[in-house]
Specification:
The structure is a single chain. This protein has about 270 residues and is an alpha/beta fold. Helix content is about 30%, strand content about 25%. It contains 7 helices and 11 strands. Helix 6 links the parallel strand 10 and strand 11. The protein binds S-adenosylmethionine. S-adenosylmethionine binds next to strand 11.
Length: about 270
């Protein structure tokens, strides 16, 4: 079953039960945060603070300026933190969390997520490498996104190596026919095209991610019949992959356009 929910994800996440989903993937929108820039906040752990967060720790929220890069990150951090705390609460104890983000923000986000999940829960930084668009001549042209992978319990989580899509050997002649036909397991570096402009997959939603990336995550980190949550769902790529792979899916977005695109894209599944 695929469920599409319209609304602010913080409000909607609070309605979901503790430990009720098996896998969470999110691709939050950095940079759309111009509105949030007005209220840049810094959250610091302080046992005298009035805000209570994960595991009952106290925090203080401090308003800071909004001009510098650090400050605009402070905004994003304050936006993300309560949502990731909700994700942690909703995730089953053997569940996994994938966080898709831009290379400029990933380091700050990792520190934030480590605080909520614990550093031991961090398993991989996946590099999704693509080759598209203009190339700057001023520095190495950035052509990748980062996906942080966490397991709520790093000693007990779903990871289906037997059900992964396999990739070709670079030198198939060196490994023999059987191995080369079977291919090898993917690593933490994934080469995959962006959604091609003229493809059937393209919905027209600006930040749409490729189905191939979501299929790989869902096959590896969930089982048929499991429930997957994407609370920054956009065009519903996570839902489309879940529908193909026999997983249930909860999709949230606060943009009516995204809801419309998802309803059209997933009309045979909802
Ligand atoms: C980068 S896009 C996700 C794209 C998606 N992965 C795909 O493949 O289409 C981020 C989405 O988060 C949504 N969003 C931003 N803030 C939100 C909020 N507070 N609650 C729910 N959705 C939100 C935006 O409307 C946008 O569709």
């Amino acid at each position: 079953m695929i469920e599409i929910i319209f609304g602010d994800n913080l409000t909607e996440l609070k309605k979901l039960a503790d430990q009720s989903v098996d896998l969470i993937y999110i691709d939050p929108p950095f940079n759309t945060g111009k509105v949030q820039k007005r209220t840049a906040m810094k959250t610091t752990r302080d046992e005298n603070g009035s805000r209570i967060g994960f595991q009952g720790h106290h925090y203080v929220n401090e308003k800071i300026g909004s001009k510098s890069y650090q400050d605009s990150f402070g905004d994003f951090y304050a936006f993300l933190q309560p949502r990731i705390e909700e994700a942690y609460r909703i995730l089953k104890n053997n569940g996994s969390f994938y966080f898709h983000i831009d290379y400029r923000e990933v380091h700050y986000c990792k520190v934030l997520i480590d605080e909520i999940f614990g550093r031991d829960s961090f398993l991989n930084e996946i590099i999704w490498a693509y080759d598209y668009g203009a190339r700057t001549t001023k520095k190495w042209p950035p052509k990748h996104d980062n996906i942080l992978f966490y397991a709520k319990d790093p000693n007990h989580y779903t990871f289906n190596t037997d059900d992964m899509d396999r990739i070709p050997y670079m030198a198939p002649g060196l490994v023999g026919k059987e191995k080369s036909e079977r291919g090898k397991l993917p690593t933490d570096t994934w080469w995959h095209t962006i959604v091609p402009t003229n493809s059937k997959e393209k919905t027209g939603y600006p930040t749409q991610k490729p189905l191939g990336i979501l299929r790989r995550i869902i096959r590896a980190s969930s089982n048929p019949g499991d429930t997957v949550l994407d609370f920054f769902a956009g065009s519903g790529t996570t839902g489309a992959a879940c529908a193909e792979l026999g997983r249930n899916c909860i999709l949230m977005d606060n943009n009516p356009e995204a809801i419309q695109v998802m309803k059209e894209r997933l009309k045979t599944a909802i």
